[in-house]
Design brief:
Elements (H helix, E strand, L loop, with lengths): L11 E7 L4 H12 L6 E7 L4 H12 L5 E5 L5 H10 L5 E4 L5 E2 L3 H8 L5 E4 L2 E3 L7 E4 L2 E7 L9 E4 H6 L8 H10 L4 E4 L4 E4 L6 H8 L3 H8 L6
Parallel strand pairs: 1-2, 1-4, 2-3, 6-11, 7-12
Antiparallel strand pairs: 4-10, 5-12, 6-10, 8-9
Helix pairs in contact: 7-8
């Protein structure tokens, strides 16, 4: 019989917001957390109003792993509000985020923990998976007529920091909520961008919004500009 994790053993809270993402992708994300070389974590899955079929698949899998996973559900509110709710229900000394269609390398949590000796909040550069070179580039949030490499962005799900940071600063429901959060924190706390490459960021999923726009938009510039609505910089 599996033992439930003791609240005193929870060092890291991993927050995963989901909304009708294909289940095999969500399973991959969950499995990447469960397989970490650092096991002092809790995983909080926030179901942002997904349809019943997806919910049933998700619940069945979570039930098999409920010693490590907490499930929350509410009507569709968007990623920022979902993560804010996850924070309120978390217990960890540190908090981080995982997007439902990405995954952690096995040493992601331990690598992030190592960086906390010299920072209150970090954002790490990911290992980005693409089909085309152009997918490495996204619109600059300060000037969407320009594009920048994804390594120059603050990615929502690579944020990792002390609990007090996430309980003091909310994520706003806005474009570039991740970069906005990072910049607000930087005004009063120590923040660092680190080159870990332990977060795998997929930009080549055929059913993703960005991929669909890329296929259906003839002018390349239109696809790039439209991708601004969903890119995480």
């Amino acid at each position: 019989m599996k033992n439930e994790i003791n609240i005193h053993e929870v060092k890291i809270s991993v927050l995963l917001a989901v909304y009708n993402t294909e289940f095999f992708l969500v399973k991959r994300a969950i499995d990447s957390v469960l397989g970490q070389d650092f096991q002092g974590f809790e995983l909080i899955v926030i179901d942002d109003g997904s349809d019943k079929r997806f919910q049933q698949e998700l619940l069945a899998y979570i039930t098999d792993n409920e010693h490590k996973i907490t499930y929350l559900r509410h009507k569709n509110r968007g990623q920022s509000e979902s993560i804010n709710r996850g924070i309120l229900n978390s217990k960890g000394k540190y908090i981080t985020i995982l997007d439902a269609d990405d995954e952690f390398k096995q040493n992601h949590l331990s690598s992030c923990m190592h960086e906390m000796a010299s920072a209150d909040l970090i954002a790490s550069k990911p290992e980005t998976v693409v089909d085309d070179e152009e997918d490495y580039y996204v619109p600059d949030r300060h000037d969407t007529s320009k594009i920048i490499h994804v390594d120059e962005c603050i990615l929502f799900a690579t944020l990792f920091g002390k609990r007090e940071i996430f309980t003091t600063f909310d994520f706003y429901d806005m474009y570039a909520a991740d970069a906005n959060f990072y910049e607000r924190v930087s005004q009063t706390h120590v923040v660092r961008k680190v080159d870990l490459r332990t977060y795998i960021y997929y930009r080549n999923i055929p059913t993703s919004i960005s991929a669909t726009l890329k296929r259906n938009s003839a002018p390349h510039t239109v696809a790039i500009i439209m991708d601004n609505a969903i890119s995480p910089n």
